[in-house]
Amino acid sequence: QVQLVESGGGLVQAGGSLRLSCAASGRTFSSYVMGWFRQAPGKEREFVSHIRSSGSTYYSDSVKGRFTISRDNAKNMVNLQMNSLKPEDTAVYYCSARRGTGPYDYWGQGTQVTVSS
């Protein structure tokens, strides 16, 4: 089992930065693909970024060039550095985990990110 807990959300002005963290527990953490998703009020949950066990990363077009995902397997941590934030980035951000091409089996409770103009 993998347990996930997000932190680091808050209120920031447009153009600012915020760093989200996801603390994970579980014996197989290093083998999982770790992802970040977000959900704004009244909208569907959307993919933001993922990082594979190899360290390879992928980003949605909306955040590419502004966000950076990273992981530290020794510390069982996944981070999302968010720069040049925009009001449309406002959402609850969720950390998630999966194996290979399977579904995201594990989810955190989410952390609120609010970007004001």
Explain what this protein looks like in three dimensions.
The structure is a single chain. The protein has 117 residues and is mainly β. Helix content is 0%, strand content 52%. The chain is built from no helices and 11 strands. It has strands at 3-7, 10-13, 18-25, 33-39, 46-51, 57-59, 67-72, 77-82, 91-98, 106-107, 111-116. Strands 2, 4, 5, 6, 9, 10 and 11 form a 7-stranded mixed β-sheet that branches. A 4-stranded antiparallel β-sheet has the order 1-3-8-7, with no helix packed on it.
Radius of gyration: 13 Å
Query: What is the count of helical runs?
Result: 0
Mean pLDDT: 94
Summing up helix and strand content along with how strands pair, one would put the structural category as mainly beta
Assembly of the depicted chains: single chain
Largest sheet: 7 strands, mixed
Unreliable stretches? none
How many distinct beta strands? 11
What gross morphology would you assign? Answer: globular
Spatial gap, N to C terminus? 40 Å
Strand proportion, as a percent range, falls in over 45%
Order of helices and strands: EEEEEEEEEEE
What is the helix fraction of residues, given as a range? Answer: under 10%
Attribute tags:
11 strands, 7-stranded mixed beta sheet, 117 residues, globular, mainly beta
Topology, element by element:
Blueprint: E1 3-7, E2 10-13, E3 18-25, E4 33-39, E5 46-51, E6 57-59, E7 67-72, E8 77-82, E9 91-98, E10 106-107, E11 111-116
Parallel strand pairs: 2-11
Antiparallel strand pairs: 1-3, 3-8, 4-5, 4-9, 5-6, 7-8, 9-10, 9-11
